[in-house]
Amino acid sequence: MCRHYGGGVAMAANTYDAIVIGSGMSGGWAAKELTEKGMQTLVLEAGRSIVPEVDYVEHVPPWGVKFRGLRDRKAESINRPIQSQIGDEWNAKFFVDDKENPYTTDSDKPYLFLRGRHVGGRSVMWGRQTYRLSDLDFEANLKEGLGVDWPIRYKDIEPWYNYVEDFIGVSGQAEGLPHLPDSKFLPPMEMNCAELAVKEAIAGKFPDGRMMTIGRVAILTESHRGRAACHYCGPCQRGCITRSYFSSVNSTLPAAQETGKLTLRPFSVVHSLIFDSKTRKITGVRVIDGQTREAMEFHARIVFLCASTLESARILLNSTTPEFPNGLANSSGELGHNLMDHIFKGGATGTIPGHEDHIQMGNRPNGIYVPRFRNIKQKHPAFLRGYGFQGGGHREGWERGSDMPGFGVDFKNMLKNPGPWRFNFTGFGECLPNHDNHLEIDKNKVDAWGIPALKINCQWRPNELAIYKDMSVTAAEMLEAAGAKDIVASTAQSLPGEGIHEMGSARMGRDPKTSVLNEHNQAHDVKNLFVTDGSCMVSSACVNPSLTYMALTARACDYAVGKMKRGEL
Amino acid sequence: MERREVLKLLASAAVLPALTPDAFSMFRSIHAGLAEAPGLKALNSHQDATVTIIAELILPQTDTPGAKAAKVNEFIDLILAEWYDDATTARFLAGLADVDQRSEKLFGKQFVDCTNAQQLQLMKVLDDEAAVARKQQATAEAISRKPAIAPLNFFGMMKKLTLLGYYTSQVGFEVELHKSIIPSSHAGCVAITGVA
Questions:
Q1: A217 and A364, same domain (yes or no)
Q2: What is the mean pLDDT of residues B39-46?
Q3: Which of A122, A418, B162, B196 is at a distance of 20 to 30 A from A441, taking alpha carbons?
Q4: What phi, psi does A148 have (nearest 5°)?
């Protein structure tokens, strides 16, 4: 499945109905939707193929990796100083070589661009947390006069959330919260003993409505559309041979392959888009073969750009023409601007006394979720928007022994049994759109394929910093309410990019003068160009964004193919 | 610098931050001359024997295998050769030499030649010192926010590597902890009786 040049039959040499750039979360959905609607579709993926039977390593035991999980520290400090901050010894191969894929920042504005380049992109290693945005999010910019107004509302995307969830499978607990709409859920995963205790302790305790639910997660708790239920081995980020979590490799790309209309081309590094100034449309894509370095062109009637927030912006910024000297589809000047990422890490940890005669069985690949509670009932004096908490409870394992006195028989027998219940809350907060957080092309830096690299300019600003402060306080309050001991509040901050939820670099909007894309993710300036990855986001909300990218992609495909079939595109 | 002086220097953990590149390379060459343990890259046979005994005293064979059966010494050798930076490896080996110095002073023989009771007596001292050092290091790192790649105290390093090497081995994972990669069942909150 998903191998070189599979399936599709090109109409003329290198010519297709549609080209999708990128094969991850968004590109996989574009491939599925376009092929299922009859389009001969070429998917260009910059990196290698992923063959699950060979590449997935979720069942490799700790003694099967050289450093038992400590990673290859010395080699990584040379070749992968940035990507070594994410993933583990098993799945490090799913993240890029930093030397081949450079980017720059000012020295006082560090940014972590953490990513993979292979079929499936980051959908192979993602966190799988799956939440809907609500009108609290879609209306926020307009109400507060920040950025631009989202050109859509919840009613516009709701059917597409349903459509996507029905295909990918989302497990979770319906809670009926207006600001965190329920998905179409498969049965929820179970909370463990500490989580049940904390949930009960929080319920009804706080006037701002704090509550705890099980994480909503794109993992199957029962078999679904030919994919097996989760077997609770735990490390989904290393792959899943039973395809129980959603990734494009596990789900959307096989569906696209089944139509016979998909051509998937790995090792296809997109340089830029080819613009025809007469028709004011794209005629194709310039590609550099990742292995041979050969330059080539592919042509199509429409292009879906799904290369990720930073890479999609980079491709457009590198696609300059006399009409668009500052980047294709950039008459607004907003391309590359308004970069956002979720702030995270602030929170608290503690020990939950008791329950020591109970344990959790299996390795549940999911945690808990505390939905946003700030600026819902009451305006917060220090900041706009809000944050949610992820985290959960677990019993300490043998690792605790390194920090304890003792050795010998008693020590060994003590470590055989689990230790106390620990609990952690980690906040994920909204980042406001800011024109000054932006991407540009660094004219002095190219990647391994000779393509100009990005310079990233992004920093947290007063609203984000105020949210950080609040996260540690409210997390500790909840642990206190649960009777936790040894509570440690953390004011740690993530670097921009570290949340791996980058978005906003080609925002949607109603006005072509202030936005890059319209309400259908179609470029205002170039009608056969659609950008449906995180670039399109107008605000970041505080929930994990992948579900929204998928829903917007499916929605844009429906619009684009409808227009093509009516001869309007 | 004479070999004896280098060993003396290495045995004194206090001067290690001042270990010069010159002294270090000399240490390496001396060490290379001693390396005779087959298959090991950092430990010579005497060091390997000492590490093997200390690891087994930390996690001994009981009704389940101990650190020796899990080949924790080979894991520690790998970390010393390929994971620690040179200064940290030197610190570990100096700490190991210091164990012999102490046992010579206390009992007039090297650690491996001591009785089990003598070994346990010295281990208790080392473990108590490691506990103090652990607290000092945690305090310092909370201020500097620059955690070291390993405990600064030798016995702290030794204990951490022994636990990691043992519980991530097949013996430790399957026999000691009764874990399996694919769990036989899953549930959120169950009483331990009835699980066994």
A1: yes
A2: 95
A3: A122
A4: -125, 165
Q: What is the ipTM of this complex?
A: 0.93
Q: Same domain for A165 and A212?
A: no
Using a CB-CB distance cutoff of 8 angstroms, which residues of chain B are in contact with residue A360? 187-190
Instruction: Return residues 120-159 of A near B (CB < 8 Å).
Output: none
Best of B189, B190, B195 to mutate (most A CBs within 10 Å, chain A): B189
Is there a contact between A479 and A423 (Cβ–Cβ < 8 Å)? yes
Q: Give the whole-angstrom CA distance, residue A464 versus residue A376.
A: 17
Count of domains observed in chain B: 1
Asked if A349 and A290 sit in the same domain, the reply is no
Pairing of strands A185-186, A170-171: parallel
Residues A352 and A441 in one domain: no
Query: How much of chain B is in helix, strand and coil states, percent to nearest 5?
Result: 65, 5, 30
- pLDDT score at B2: 43
Confidence at A558, pLDDT banded by 50, 70, 90: very high
From the list A74, A195, A412, the residue facing B60 with the nearest CB is: A412
Residues A75, A221 within the same domain: no
| Final residue of a structural domain among A449, A475, A495 | A495
- Residues of the domain holding A182: 177-238+343-429+460-495
CA distance A187 to A201: 24
Q: Is residue A335 within 8 Å of residue A516, measured between CB atoms?
A: yes
- Residue contacts between A and B (CB atoms, under 8 Å): 123
Contact A215, A172 (CB under 8 A): yes
* Domain containing residue A48: CATH number: 3.50.50.60
Q: What residues of B are in contact with residue A490 (Cβ under 8 Å)?
A: none
CB contact set of B24 (below 8 Å; sequence gap of 6+): B86, B87, B90
> How far is the alpha carbon of A310 from chain B, nearest alpha carbon, in Å?
30
- CB-CB: which of B151, B156, B183 is closest to A361? B183
Label residue A3 by pLDDT band (50, 70, 90): very low
Residues A329 and A254 in one domain: yes
Q: Please answer whether residues A37 and A60 qualify as being in contact, where contact means their C-beta atoms are separated by less than 8 angstroms.
A: no
B192 domain-assigned: no
Average pLDDT over residues A337-349: 97
pLDDT tens for A492-509 read 899 999 999 999 999 999
The pLDDT of residue B36 is 58
Q: Which of B58, B60, B173 sits opposite A61 (nearest CB)?
A: B173
Residue B189 lies in a domain: no
- Does B163 sit within 8 Å of A360, measured CB to CB? no
Q: Structural domain tally of chain A?
A: 2
Q: Which of B:16-75 have CB within 8 Å of A?
A: 57-60, 62, 66, 75
CA pair distance A23, A27, nearest whole angstrom: 4
- Give the model's confidence band at B23: pLDDT under 50 very low, under 70 low, under 90 confident, else very high: very low
Cβ atoms of residues A387 and A369 within 8 Å: no
- Is B156 near chain A, with CB under 8 Å? yes
Task: Tell me the C-alpha distance between B189 and B26, whole Å.
Answer: 57
pLDDT at B178: 95
